[in-house]
């Protein structure tokens, strides 16, 4: 089997005082070994919760994760005991977040934090861990790495902190790294360096990457495959070339149209040019969830919710424009 990860019908529900909300709605996708797979969508689309669900980081009891299956490296994560899961996730899957300052402890040194996964998951001595951290700092391009070991997070620049977080994410040489908007807080030049670094590390270590972003420019630069998410569902799934060649869901087309020219500054709100807002998951529109914002909406779109239709070569879109048969039935 050449897939590293096969997620089938992942569902994540949160219950609050206004009842239960399905934030991730039957999401299915695959990640091949050493592949870089994007999850792209506006904030509130469910892409972060999808990854937190895979990592077992959704807080219970308010959050509940279920799936038909989550095959990861030969075992079904939905069938493991909590102990087995913790071990597997810590060693073989790791995660890098957007703002390193909030995930780093301000009063612990870099070597203590970056080396922590090794002290949890291996029996290496402190000395050996220190050497591994030093080596990882070199690998991720931190200048004067030896001098940074005993530094505190605030003593590093944002770009160096993110490099250190990537070092931490890769220190156990995981099979899968999930990166959630890892460069959004960084300036354009540093962002480009970090993305290039991640691709180089994938090439060298063979770690597969799930890249979570609101930025189709980042998807174009580094991903092999793409899943476009809207209001908790995957609305389009394709090889990266197919997606940019034949964007087939009106939402994907709107995202593409909202990419600013290279001369414009990248910013977190570059998608604001799609008119309308992501629907409130507590009160979803009937039919296609995108219909209130869709320029192509037809009468059926307001009534019936479309399924993912296979357009060939694994390219799928959830839209009545591509499911003539379903629309007629
Ligand atoms: Fe637009 Fe209808 Fe397709 Fe939804 S199903 S994206 S409303 S055309
Ligand atoms: Mg997010």
From TrEMBL:
InterPro entries assigned to the protein according to its UniProt record, in alphabetical order: AAA+_ATPase, ABC_Ni/Peptide_Import, ABC_transporter-like_ATP-bd, Oligopep_ABC_C, P-loop_NTPase
Keyword presence, Signal: no
A GO CC annotation given for this chain: plasma membrane
Protein name: ABC transporter ATP-binding protein
A GO term for molecular function: ATP hydrolysis activity
Ranges in a coiled coil: none
Membrane topology, record value: Peripheral membrane protein
Predominant localisation class: membrane
């Amino acid at each position: 089997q050449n897939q590293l990860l096969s997620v089938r019908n992942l569902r994540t529900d949160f219950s609050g005082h206004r009842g239960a909300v399905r934030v991730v709605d039957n999401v299915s996708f695959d990640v091949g070994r050493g592949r870089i797979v994007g999850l792209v969508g506006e904030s509130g689309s469910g892409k972060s919760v999808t990854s937190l669900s895979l990592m077992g980081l959704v807080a219970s009891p308010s959050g509940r994760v279920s799936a038909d299956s989550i095959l990861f490296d030969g075992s079904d994560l939905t069938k493991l005991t909590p102990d087995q899961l913790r071990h597997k996730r810590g060693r073989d899957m790791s995660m890098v977040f957007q703002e390193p300052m909030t995930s780093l402890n301000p009063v612990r040194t870099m070597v203590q934090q970056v080396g922590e996964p090794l002290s949890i998951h291996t029996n290496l001595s402190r000395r050996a861990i220190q050497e591994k951290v030093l080596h990882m700092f070199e690998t991720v391009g931190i200048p004067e790495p030896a001098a940074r070991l005993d530094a505190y997070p605030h003593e590093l620049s944002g770009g160096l902190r993110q490099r250190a977080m990537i070092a931490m994410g890769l220190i156990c040489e995981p099979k899968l790294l999930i990166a959630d908007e890892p460069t959004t807080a960084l300036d354009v030049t540093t962002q480009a360096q970090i993305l290039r670094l991640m691709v180089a590390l994938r090439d060298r270590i063979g770690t597969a990457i799930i890249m979570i972003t609101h930025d189709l420019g980042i998807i174009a630069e580094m991903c092999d495959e793409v899943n476009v998410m809207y209001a908790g569902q995957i609305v389009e799934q394709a090889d990266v070339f197919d997606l940019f060649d034949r964007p087939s869901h009106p939402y994907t087309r709107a995202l593409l149209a909202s990419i600013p020219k290279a001369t414009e500054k990248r910013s977190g709100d570059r998608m604001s040019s799609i008119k309308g807002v992501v629907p409130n998951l507590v009160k979803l529109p009937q039919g296609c969830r995108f219909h209130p914002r869709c320029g192509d909406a037809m009468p059926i779109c307001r009534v019936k919710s479309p399924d993912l239709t296979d357009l060939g070569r694994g390219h799928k879109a959830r839209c009545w424009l591509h499911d003539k048969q379903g629309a007629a039935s």
